[in-house]
């Protein structure tokens, strides 16, 4: 089965891209995962908008954070960090 991962920053471009990608995934019956990278420097309003967008899209959002990525980088140096996002 095909699985689409769409990275959503909270901006207009990624909102439209993820919306269109989800529509294609729904029509083709593919899995769809919305992914947000939490840089920890964003505005609270942006983070709230990202959560609201995921609810509107009716999708659970995977979120990656620098703390998690740093931990994984140190733990898995030289190895694939597949699955490094938390849902």
What can you tell me about this protein's structure?
It is a single chain. The protein is of the alpha/beta class and 87 residues long. It has a single domain, classed as Nucleotidyltransferase, domain 5 (2-Layer Sandwich). It contains 3 helices and 3 strands. A 3-stranded parallel sheet has the order 1-2-3. It is globular, with a radius of gyration of 14 Å. The model is unreliable at 76-87 (pLDDT under 50).
Q: Can you give keywords for this protein?
A:
disordered C terminus, 3 helices, 3-stranded parallel sheet, alpha/beta, 47% helix, Nucleotidyltransferase, domain 5
Please give the number of β-strands.
3
The H-level CATH homologous superfamily, spelled out, is ATPase, nucleotide binding domain
Overall morphology = globular
The proportion of residues in beta strands is 15-25%
* Helical stretch tally: 3
Instruction: For the record, give the distance between the C-alpha atoms at the N and C termini, rounded to a whole number.
Output: 20 Å
Summarize the structure.
The protein contains three helices and three strands; from the N terminus they run E-H-E-H-E-H. The chain is α/β, with parallel strands linked by helices and 87 residues long.
């Amino acid at each position: 089965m095909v699985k689409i991962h769409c990275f959503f920053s909270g901006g207009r471009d990624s909102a439209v891209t993820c919306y269109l990608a989800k529509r294609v995934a729904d029509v083709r019956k593919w899995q769809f995962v919305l992914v947000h990278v939490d840089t920890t420097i964003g505005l609270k309003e942006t983070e709230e908008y990202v959560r609201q967008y995921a609810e509107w899209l009716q999708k659970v959002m995977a979120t990656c954070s620098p703390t998690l990525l740093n931990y994984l980088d140190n733990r898995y140096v030289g190895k694939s960090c597949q699955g490094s996002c938390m849902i």
